[in-house]
Each structure stands twice: as C-alpha cells, then as structure tokens.
Write a structure and sequence with these properties.
InterPro entries: HR_lesion. With 188 residues, the chain is mainly α. Helices cover 63% and strands 6% of the residues. Strand 2 and strand 3 (184-187) form a beta hairpin.
C-alpha cells in the first residue's frame, strides 16, 4: 500500500514538475513563451477584477508571475511526492491563482472553438485541485502515529495490560503500560 501511494503521488506530481521544468528551461530574459501567453490573459483578468470587484490590482511583471508559478509547481510537486502537506498547499495555491487566469472560458461565447478547449482544460485543472483538497483532507483526518517503544523480550511473550488511570472508556494521556512478567510500568 505504501508503494502504491508513493507511485500515485509521483505520477500526480509529475504533471506539475515536468511543467515547471519546461517553463524553467524556456524562461530566458523575458519569461519565455509562458510569459507571452500569460500577458494578455492577465490583462483581461485584472480588468475584470478592477471593473467587477472594484479592487485595484498592482502592477506585476509577468516574468515574476511565471517564476512564482515555476517555484510553486516545482517545490510543491517535489514535496508532494514525499507526502508533505506543505507541497499540497503550494500546489493548491498555484491552482487557485492559475485556473481562473489561464483557462478563461468565461470570456468567450459558447459557440467559439476556444470556449470548448478552455472549458475542458478548466474542468481538468479543477479535478486536479479537487484531488489536492482530497489529499489534504485525508492527510488531516488520520490521527498521527504514536511512537512505538520497543518491548523487552519478556513483554513480547506475555500480554500487556493497559491501566486506564482510574477512568473507564478513554485512554489516559499519557497511556501507562504495565508489563505483567516483570511488573514494570512504561509510559507510552
């Protein structure tokens, strides 16, 4: 199960890592093709935000946005492979910023060819975003593993008894373990 989970994280993160690698290699002085493709879309996005929400968007160089995307995808993907929630959060931040800007199907009429292409990419990236949210939710829903202490050879052969600190029902904090063969107590 652990290998399958690791393999799944590698395959999932490869989307982000390979994209970051490609953008990094093509970056150049001006941000490369990613900056050229992002510039008009970011302009439309900022005008929508300013006209509909009344929020003034500060001037940002497009190559800085591309470099931030490379960082979020690259570092987030690598951390995600090792099961880090921080990596998942970095990828979530990237998806939250990139999806509405890059896949702006809402700027096209539904009869246009671009609408269908952008809507398909939008829904695919929303599925990736949902998978990241699922990963974070599952990661936070399981209790942390308790550090297991090594048992003495005597305790391995006998059944340990948990002393419940005088209360029935819940384990005390910290739980006390009594080894019946030598009569010793260990704190877990």
């Amino acid at each position: 199960m652990a290998f399958t989970s690791f393999l799944g994280r590698v395959l999932f993160a490869s989307i982000f890592i390979l994209s970051a690698y490609q953008e990094f290699n093509e970056f150049g002085v001006d941000g490369g093709p990613a900056a050229k493709a992002l510039k008009p879309k970011f302009g439309v996005f900022t005008s929508h935000v300013q006209s509909h929400a009344g929020i003034q968007v500060p001037e940002i160089e497009i190559k800085h946005l591309v470099s931030a995307a490379i960082f979020l995808k690259g570092i987030g993907g690598i951390l995600f492979i090792f099961g880090s929630s921080l990596g998942a959060y970095l990828l979530i931040i990237h998806q939250l910023i990139a999806i509405p800007i890059l896949y702006d199907f809402y700027n096209y009429d539904n009869e246009e060819k671009e609408f269908n292409q952008l809507f398909l990419k939008f829904t695919q990236n929303m599925a990736l975003y949902g998978a990241l949210l699922f990963f974070v939710g599952m990661k936070n829903s399981f209790p942390r593993r308790l550090h297991k202490k090594k048992w003495s050879s005597c305790c391995k052969s006998t059944l340990p008894v948990f002393i419940m600190d005088g209360r029935a029902g819940d384990f005390p904090s910290p739980a006390v373990l009594w080894c019946s063969c030598i009569g010793s107590m260990e704190i877990l």
